Amino acid sequence: MPFVNIKITREKDEPTLKQKQELIEGVTDLIARVLNKNKTSTVVIIDEIEMDNYGLGGKTITEVRENQKKS
């Protein structure tokens, strides 16, 4: 049984429900086509990560993005 975990940042109003549905369908189709796996046994999980819950260079991504806007 294929198990796919997508991690994506949650920003503003994205990803929307429609976008998540498209990701799930698209990844399922890709796994079926490339690996010849049954769609009904393919699990797709989307983890949405808040911008303050990960960092780069010792700063949260929120801080990094704010600093990029100032530059």
Sheet with the most strands: spatial strand order: 1-2
User: What is the fold named in CATH at topology level?
Assistant: Macrophage Migration Inhibitory Factor
Helix-strand sequence: EHEEEH
CATH architecture verdict:
2-Layer Sandwich
The value of Rg in angstroms is: 16 Å
The domain count comes to 1
Family: Belongs to the 4-oxalocrotonate tautomerase family.
GO molecular function: isomerase activity
Pfam families: Tautomerase (PF01361)
Protein name: Tautomerase
Describe the 3D structure.
With about 70 residues, this protein is of the alpha+beta class. The chain has one domain (about 5-70): Macrophage Migration Inhibitory Factor. Helices cover about 40% and strands about 30% of the residues. The protein contains 2 helices and 4 strands. It has helices spanning about 15-35, 60-70; strands at about 5-10, 45-50, 55, 60. The protein has a two-stranded parallel ribbon with strand order 1-2. α1 links the parallel β1 (about 5-10) and β2 (about 45-50). It is elongated. The protein starts with a strand and ends with a helix. About 0% of the residues are buried. The mean pLDDT is about 95.
